[in-house]
């Protein structure tokens, strides 16, 4: 959740394009493809193009209810897998 905490502080976030991060976290971030791409972005100060106000609104959409719902979904998936294995 460090990316969302940064968004809440209105700090531009840089994420790896192929990273295992949910779409809501990646939304309104600067995404790099590889090391050269990241280097270029840093040299060009591309993080200044990130709309931190929109990123902040992403956090508001993902309050405690969002995290709770995702946690419940994980538990349901685990329970369903265990039930299928028993059959």
Brief rundown of the structure:
By secondary structure, the protein is mainly alpha-helical. Helices cover 61% and strands 7% of the residues.
Write the layout of secondary structure elements.
Elements: H1 2-8, E1 14-16, H2 23-26, E2 30-32, H3 35-43, H4 52-61, H5 64-86
Parallel strand pairs: 1-2
Helix pairs in contact: 1-4
Helix tally equals 5
Poorly predicted ranges: none
* Helix content percent band: 55-70%
The largest sheet, given as strand count, sense and whether it forms a barrel, is:
2 strands, parallel
Fraction in beta strands: 5-15%
Q: Work out the radius of gyration.
A: 17 Å
Number of strand segments: 2
Task: Characterise the protein shown here.
61% of the residues lie in helices and 7% in strands. The chain has helices at 2-8, 23-26, 35-43, 52-61, 64-86, and strands spanning 14-16, 30-32. The protein is mainly alpha-helical. The model has no long low-confidence stretch (mean pLDDT 87). Helix 1 crosses helix 4. The protein is elongated, with a radius of gyration of 17 Å.
Please give a handful of descriptors for the protein shown.
single chain; 7% strand; mainly alpha; elongated; two-stranded parallel sheet; 87 residues
